[in-house]
Amino acid sequence: MNFITQKNALLFVCITAGHFLFAQIDKNATKETKNLYRNLNAISISHILFGHQHALEYGHGWSNEPDKSDVKSVTGSHPAVVGIDFSDFSGQSKVKTEKSIQVLRKNVVDTYERGGITTVSWHFNNPASDGGFYWKEGISKASMALIKPGGSHHEQYKEILKTIADFANSVKAKDGTLSPMIFRPFHEFDGDWFWWGKPYTSREDFIEVWQFTVSYLRDTLGVHNFIYAFSPDNRFNSESEYLERYPGDKFVDMFGMDDYADFGRDGKYDLEAGLKKLEIISNLGKKKKKLAAFTETGLESIPNEKWWTEVLLKTLKSNDLKLSYVLVWRNDAISPTHYYAPFPEQISVPDFLKFYNDPFTLFEKDLTNIYQMNF
After folding, report:
1. CATH of 2-366, one of 3.20.20.80, 3.30.1370.10, 3.40.50.80, 3.20.20.150
2. Broadest EC class (predicted)?
3. Over residues 258-267, mean pLDDT
4. b/e map 214-230, b = 16+ CB within 10 Å
5. Set 32, 57, 188, 208: catalytic member
C-alpha cells in the first residue's frame, strides 16, 4: 500500500502485493486492529506519528481535565499516539485498581473514537515480592522464573493476565467495536532497573514468559485487539545483540527501542550511535515483514530549544528509516522539571511547532480513518 498524506488529510491509495505481506501474529485480530497494523506500516514509508506518554491523564501542572493535553495546548492537536500504563492492574488495592481501570477505559475509548492510537506500557509490580516494578536489592525477587509455567507464582500471573484481558475486551466504542492497542510488556528488559531485567532473568525464562503471555492472552483469553511490541533499551550495537532475547516471529508484531542516552540525557549526545540502533530495528522490520517504532525517547526538561528539529527530526529523517511512531515520555503534574513534551511558554515551543508543521510528522488531527481500509 502506498500512503499519501497531507496535513489534516490522509489518503489511502494503490494496494501493492508487497506491503500486504505484513501480517500480524494474531490471525483472529479484529478488523480494526488488522487495519491499524497495515496502516501503521503504510505510514512508516514516508511519515512518522508523534506520541506522548500519559498525554491525556495529566500534564505540566494539571491533571484530569477533559480533552486536554500539553501537546494540544501548544499545537491544537493531541499526539497521534497516546501512552498509557497497566501499572495499577496488580499489586494495588481493589479500589485503586478499579479506579485506574475506569480512567484508562475512558482514555482508550475516547482516543479511539477521536481517531488516535493507544500504546500500553506495563510497569509491572513484582508479583512475588515487595519492591514494586523496580529492582531493589534485598527486597526484590527474580520473579520471571517464578511466574513462568510450572513456577510457584504462575497461577497468580494468570490471574493478573485475566485482569488485562478483561480490560482489553471492555474498551468498546459507542458502535460496539473494540479499541485496538499496541501492548509493550517487559520493556527495557536489557537493563538492570526492573525486576524482569537481564541480570535477574535467564534468556530462556524471559522468552518462555513472553511466549506464554502472548499465547494466553490471545489463544486462551480471547484478546484480539492487541499489537505486540518488543522493546529493549539501547544496550545493543548489532542485530544479533538486539535479538538475544527475541521470543520469535510468531510472538512479536513490532520491533521497538527505548533510547534516552544517545539523545541528550545528562547533556550527552551520540546521535550516530542512536541512528545506528534505529537502523537495526527499521531493517529488522523490513526483513521480517513487521512494524518498527521508536517506542520511547525524549530529553528531560528540554533545555535544548532546537532539540525537536535539529536532534530528533533530523535523526528520524536519516538513512531511509521506516518507523511507525516516536513517543516521548510523560509530563509530570507536580515536578517542575520532569517533562518531555513542551507546554505553553516552554523554551522549545517554537521549534516544536516547526516539528509539528513538518509534513513528515503526523499528529492526531492528521489522521483520517486509521482503523479502516480505504482504497
Report:
1. 3.20.20.80
2. hydrolase
3. 98
4. bebbbeebebbbbbbbb
5. 188
